[in-house]
Amino acid sequence: MLRPRAILLIILLLAFALAGIHEADRGQERERQSALRLMPPPDPVQELAAVRKDLQRALSLLVECFGHPVDLKQVKSTAVTITAYSSTAGQCDSTPHLTASDHPVRVGILAVSRDLVEEMGLAFGQRVLIPGYGLFEVRDLMHPRWRRKVDIWESDREAARLFGKQQGTLIWVDAKKENA
Fold first, then answer.
1. What's the predicted TM-score (pTM) here?
2. Domains of the chain, earliest start first
3. 13 pLDDT exceeds 80?
């Protein structure tokens, strides 16, 4: 039996995954709202079938993201501030092209605040999903002053600057439970 939190997480994951589909204008939204008021109440059997279909889609998205079947009890998430960084001495240490895990920087690398490693159990090499931004691999650490923050690596300083500061959700599979 799935817990309400797990179902909510799956629904949120689906919503973010399908967020690319937007209505063209407010007129269409008003028409949709009008049509919803005229619709008969939903059939519970059809509603359950739709929820099952959505759940299967969410599970297949998790498998696609993390590369293996995922137990929903292992899926974790937290709200984070998202910024971007580039390989410049001003934003990094004396080896700007190497991550804290001693890997070269590349597209798809994510630096995380130390509290996410120490308190939330993230580890180097772990794949994480940031809905609306993509799938990343944790390979770098941020300065100890940051909390609940992630930094997406950009190849160009200007691109990192233009990314700005945004809010999002970090989703991952708990490595401790996964290896247990």
1. 0.63
2. 4-66 (no CATH), 72-179 (2.40.40.10)
3. no
